[in-house]
């Protein structure tokens, strides 16, 4: 069972190194945050702890979508993994729209899509339009209460949003 949970966590790991493109101080802090999330996830998959808590988006963070990205994408493809049945389903959500997450009590509102996510100081942006480190801004609510407010990544090692029952990740984007 433990191996299956580890395999599921890896299969749902739709995201890479958290602090790509950060300054040295920010990069070090991002590595610490990622290491802590990985420790929490390992303990969670072994049944030792509850799911890791997502890191909230700092209020001071500014999101800038470069001109090379604006208007190029209409929607994102999200993946919802049921941790009990090991079934992963895809669903599309238009950028700027809110949708029910199939089979759950969650709703998700997606914002900006950044194909090559980067942080420069307090600005979150995209290096270019190449999907090398894709991320989408998302707010996930359960029965009207916000439970996640941040970015969902495609290539990081741990899922951006994970609970006892579900993991939600980014599967890609839909070009216009």
Task: Write a compact overview of the structure shown.
With 176 residues, this protein is α+β, with helices and mostly antiparallel strands.
Description:
The structure is a single chain. The chain is α+β, with helices and mostly antiparallel strands and 176 residues long. The chain has one domain. It has two helices and eleven strands; from the N terminus they run H-H-E-E-E-E-E-E-E-E-E-E-E.
What brief labels describe this structure?
39% strand; 2 helices; 11 strands; four-stranded antiparallel sheet; alpha+beta; 176 residues; globular; single chain; 18% helix
N-C termini distance: 42 Å
How many structural domains are formed by the residues? 1
Helical fraction: 10-25%
Task: Give the count of helical stretches.
Answer: 2
- Structural class, please? alpha+beta
- The tally of beta strands, per DSSP, is 11
Shape: globular
Topology, please?
Layout: H1 2-11, H2 24-45, E1 62-63, E2 73-82, E3 88-94, E4 98-100, E5 106-114, E6 117-120, E7 123-126, E8 135-142, E9 145-153, E10 161-162, E11 166-175
Parallel strand pairs: 1-7
Antiparallel strand pairs: 2-3, 2-11, 4-5, 5-8, 6-7, 8-9, 10-11
């Amino acid at each position: 069972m433990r191996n299956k949970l580890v395999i599921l966590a890896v299969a749902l790991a739709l995201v890479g190194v958290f602090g790509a493109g950060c300054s040295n101080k920010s990069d070090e802090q991002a590595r610490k945050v990622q290491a802590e999330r990985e420790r929490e996830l390992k303990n969670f998959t072994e049944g030792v702890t509850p799911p890791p808590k997502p890191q909230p988006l700092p209020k001071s963070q500014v999101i800038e979508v470069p001109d090379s990205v604006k208007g190029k994408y209409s929607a994102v493809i999200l993946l919802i993994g049921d941790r009990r049945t090991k079934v992963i389903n895809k669903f599309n959500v238009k950028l700027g729209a809110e949708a029910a997450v199939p089979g759950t009590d969650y709703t998700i509102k997606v914002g900006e899509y950044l194909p090559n996510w980067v942080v420069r100081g307090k600005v979150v942006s995209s290096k270019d339009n190449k999907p090398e480190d894709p991320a989408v801004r998302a707010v996930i609510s359960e029965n009207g209460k916000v439970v996640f407010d941040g970015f969902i990544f495609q290539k990081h090692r741990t899922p951006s949003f994970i609970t006892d029952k579900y993991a939600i990740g980014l599967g890609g984007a839909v070009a216009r």
